[in-house]
Amino acid sequence: MQDVAVIGAGHMGTAMIAGIRKQMPDVRIEVAEQSAERVRLLRDQFGIEARDAYTPRPGTVVLLAIPPQAFEEFAARAVPGSYRDCLVISVMGGVTVAAITKLLDTQRVVRSIPNTPSEVGQGMTAFCANPSIGEADVEAARRVLSAIGGVLRVADETLLDDASALCGGGPAFVAHIAGAFADFALRAGFDASQARAIICQVLRGTADLLELTRRDPEEVARQVMTPGGTTERGMSVLRQRNLHDVITEALDSAAARSRELGAIGK
Ligand SMILES: NC(=O)c1ccc[n+]([C@@H]2O[C@H](COP(=O)([O-])OP(=O)(O)OC[C@H]3O[C@@H](n4cnc5c(N)ncnc54)[C@H](OP(=O)(O)O)[C@@H]3O)[C@@H](O)[C@H]2O)c1
């Protein structure tokens, strides 16, 4: 496997470093990071000496994990053509394949949307490859991204804006709902650790039930609802308040914001 250079070791970059270290121990990792605090954390956590700037080396997989707003300035500092012998994998929200190929002057670009469960190896990453790159690059990208969890390739790049809402934002939306469960549990008299144990197992169990039985989500919900029973009573509140539409509206807004951010580099 090629060497990997991680540019930007914030939340996402650090999760990727941890995943690659664990799943691909033979891969050499170099890091460019401009925050002194993060540089210190990298030294303590991984024994990696990060630099504040990056000069591309041929044959390297470059993982771009800087904020989207920092990308134009980062690219402006690159020597034209210097990324052509690297495979560039971006995790930057909203920055298109076209913008990355143009600003970094290379065709070898994969754009991906990971999420924060990557931190515990349970990420879900959707990615889209520039159509002009070879299958070897696509497979290399798939291998690197698999180090942090599940991976899904999409052919149509516009789906990445929706994946940004679903995969990128999904953990926030689900955690927000988990927060309501936690408030209820604490109010009812469970202690914080009991509440956490219940919520995590309910989330995990529901996810496994959906995945392993391949049942439709509404069918899973219906199965819990005995007519006249407790869940049916609770569900009627969710339906009256139209929680389903509130959530789809939140996803629509998140996807629209991703499209707005897609203006970067155009
Ligand atoms: N967090 C998520 O759930 C998630 C999901 C999908 C995609 N993403 C994408 O992942 C990227 C990183 O997100 P994050 O949450 O990890 O952000 P973050 O925690 O702010 O990390 C970004 C890091 O990059 C550093 N940086 C900025 N410009 C740099 C440069 N030119 N060279 C080297 N380092 C530089 C920043 O340093 P300073 O703080 O000093 O600027 C910061 O430490 C973003 O593009 C985001 O859209 C994030």
From TrEMBL:
Catalysed reaction, written as an equation: L-proline + NADP(+) = (S)-1-pyrroline-5-carboxylate + NADPH + 2 H(+); L-proline + NAD(+) = (S)-1-pyrroline-5-carboxylate + NADH + 2 H(+)
Family annotation (HAMAP family): P5C_reductase
Record keyword Ribosomal protein present: no
Taxonomic lineage: Bacteria, Bacillati, Actinomycetota, Actinomycetes, Kitasatosporales
Domain Pyrroline-5-carboxylate reductase catalytic N-terminal: 4-92
Compartments in which it is found: Cytoplasm
Pathway(s) the chain acts in: Amino-acid biosynthesis; L-proline biosynthesis; L-proline from L-glutamate 5-semialdehyde: step 1/1
Keywords associated with the record: Amino-acid biosynthesis, Cytoplasm, NADP, Oxidoreductase, Proline biosynthesis
Protein name: Pyrroline-5-carboxylate reductase
Family: Belongs to the pyrroline-5-carboxylate reductase family.
Keyword Cytoplasm applies: yes
EC id: 1.5.1.2
Domain annotation Pyrroline-5-carboxylate reductase dimerisation: ranges: 157-261
Pfam family, one: F420_oxidored
